Amino acid sequence: MSFGSHREAIDRTIAAINRPCDIPVISQIRYRLLFWRLRLFRYFNAWKTLAEIFTSHPDPWVQNYLRKLFLKTPKEDPYYLSNHQAINYRNRIWFICDTWADTRHDGLAEIIKMKGWTLKDDNRLYPLLTLLQGKGSNLNRAGERIVLNLLNLYEKNDPQFADQAKAVLLKLIREDARQKLYSLAISGDHPQAVELVIEAGFLPKDSYQQALFFFLTERWEKYEALDFDGRLLRTMFDAASPTMRQKITAKIRKAGKARFLSILAGRDFRTRLDKMNDEEFKVFVRVLADQAEWERLWQLVFEVPFFWSINIIDILSKGSWRPAAADAQQFFQRLSELAYQPMVVSATEIKEILKPAVQKAQINVPGRINDIAFSPQAPEIAIGTATRKVAIWNYERGELTNVLRGFQRSIGRVTYTSGGLLACVERTNKSTSICSLYVAEGENVQQVGHHTGSITDILPLPENRFFTTGRDGMVVLWDAASRQQLNQRQFSFWPRAACVSRDGHYAALLYKNLALLELPSLELVDEIIEPAKEPIFRCGDFSPDGQAIITGKSNWKVQMIRIGQYGVAATSGSFQRHRSGLQRIRSIHRNGVVLSAAANGEVAFKLWKNNLDLGRITINGQQLNALHISPDGAFMALGNSDASMTFWDIRNLDIPMLLSEAFLRSTPAHLGSVQRLRRNKKLPPKVKNALKYIETILQFRFRYAIEISPVREMKAGAFDIIID
Asked: What is the pLDDT of residue 23?
């Protein structure tokens, strides 16, 4: 029998049962046959249908027949039934009880009370059936699973059980049940749960949770007595989910008290400015304006994000307020005039106008350029070549200043330490050959140590230290000043690349998998194990905020590896897409931008904080094999396999950051970027106005700076470096 015909037979049987018959004897025989037939249908909830018929059929004989059927217990003790029989018997009970819960039929209630059914394993029916049995006190020791259902009975003013449900909720004994009621109270969706928690005195033992409860329930006096300086709630706010932060923000807006704003912005009204979202800023500014906190608003003009800085200037201007200091009045006047001019106000707008990078120079070197490094102290770059030499190039003057010789093999990697010492490592095609590590100071080149096989990477660390990775599986930590080895560790794999966190506490080794090491101990913290057929990790770097490792694989995939309290975890999806294999990933801390470069010469720029694409550039030539960023984040170098390098000015990337991040994060270097860009006569007026506003902000912020580093420029043109 097909499903359709089976369903039709069931419907006909139910219709026949509901059809009245005037001859009692015939009707009884007919009903017995129909009920017997209904129960023969397999895979059909016959007991649910029988319970519904019991609640609606007008014939007393039918109700009496079904009552006896419902009260009938299997001949064997239910506790000793076979598994199949026990399931069937339990299903019979559940369907009867579920029908009663929906209809509250007195006849079904009588049957349930006679049999003493409670269904403890059903979170919805258990509290209802227990209250029906008149055993509400048994629920006092129940766990959190029954709290929401009891609360729903009370909130919906259930005519039969509302009072009993309230009585149970007021006398909960288990801590998890009390915590559940408290959680429902602070959720904002159950206002009567707040009344119950207050009446029962169910306060969490944790003082942080108590402060949150008092605040969200608008019990201001109790909150301020417990958390007079806002310390507890600030901690809770930092750790809260976005939904909970939104609720706290709404209560701050409703309270309208300026002292509560430290919850949003930090104790000094500055600490959290770069973490606040637009809704929090809106409340923050509105409350200060309502409280006429003009001086504090004026100070925030130079610390909040661009859009809110303009908003505050508008509020102060309309309030006819002026700063007292003469120099501040001049800045206020300039900002007030600019605030009413047409301007771009977001990173999304500016990225459509500004190129992310501008090419400045191209360098050609005979042989092959294997690697370069920017000096942290001078406008110089070190160029490691396949001709066993390192060239030192001054990019401001566009001239060769020095050539380092005496190396035994091709120079594979070069880097500068934080103290300005140059470190160089060799490479080879033979896995058994010795490749040395050198430290150069001026023209003095000294061999420090070696690996067996090529040295695959060398990375600087704070305090004039660096570490190397090699084809021999060794990871070695070095001190450049003393020219000594500090620590080493042997691994069963050899890293193809590595990256170091900005604080120098962690290093990531990239190979088929990814290993996170703690520095300087070189202890393995955690590891990402990839499936066998997954492409290898080719490159990577720590994110600008240090909370993730951004990795590139030998295919197009750029993936984020999140760093948590207990290790690392790969995220789903891809952070960026390219059309060929990844070659380099670099993060710029100065402006929070992440660069990814593919072998086809395509370089993509993305703002880390809001995942905003800032554009792409493509270089011509053979396969791209190198990407380097100057320590100050101002310049970029791209290398090809055709022995040439192009140099780019990437200070335009500062502008999207200055439009989206709090001015609190800005540095004097950003002032130079803005002034340089503002001199471009081809910019649209709305961009120039925005740059003038930002420039005025930065000039005021750094007006007392004792020393501002000079703005470096790169000499434009094409240069051939001849190394004798």
From this structure: 46
